[in-house]
Amino acid sequence: MSPRTAEHMTWHQSHHAVDGVMVHPSDGEAWKHFNSVHPHFLAELRNVHLRMCTDGFNPFGSFSAPYSCWLVILTIYNLPPGMCMRLEFMFLSMVIPGPSSLG
């Protein structure tokens, strides 16, 4: 939707990696393995690579309380390193409430 953001969405493809230096997840072995297993996904540069991460916290501030919440956040990995971890490109997809941690 934003022309300024759209121009950065193919950065991961035009980025030139230096051997032995990981600047971005696209430099990693997992990214390269995914591309080799799914060449049809790699063929379209506009396909979005997402990362899902979770983080748990105790909403009542007491570690002795048995209740916790877990946030599930999606991050766009197509963007350059300086952009992919900005708040405007991180999406809270769900909150998992529960009596204890996910384990």
How does this model look, in words?
The structure is a single chain. This protein is an alpha+beta fold and 103 residues long. Helix content is 25%, strand content 25%. The chain has 5 helices and 3 strands. Strands 1-2-3 form a 3-stranded antiparallel β-sheet, with no helix packed on it. The longest helix is centred in the first third of the chain and has 9 residues, at 29-37. It is elongated. The N and C termini lie far apart (38 Å).
Q: Any chance you could write out the topology, listing elements then pairs?
A:
Layout: H1 3-6, H2 11-14, H3 29-37, H4 39-43, E1 50-57, E2 68-76, H5 81-84, E3 90-98
Antiparallel strand pairs: 1-2, 2-3
Q: What is the molecular shape? A: elongated
Poorly predicted runs of 5 or more residues = none
Could you describe the largest sheet, including whether it forms a barrel?
Answer: 3 strands, antiparallel
Strand content: 25-35%
State the strand order across the main sheet: 1-2-3
User: Number of helix segments?
Assistant: 5
Intertermini distance: 38 Å
What is the N-to-C order of secondary-structure elements (H for helix, E for strand)?
Answer: HHHHEEHE
**What is the mean pLDDT?**
82
The chain-level structural class is alpha+beta
What is the tally of beta strands? 3
Helix content: 25-40%
Quaternary form:
single chain
The radius of gyration over CA amounts to 17 Å
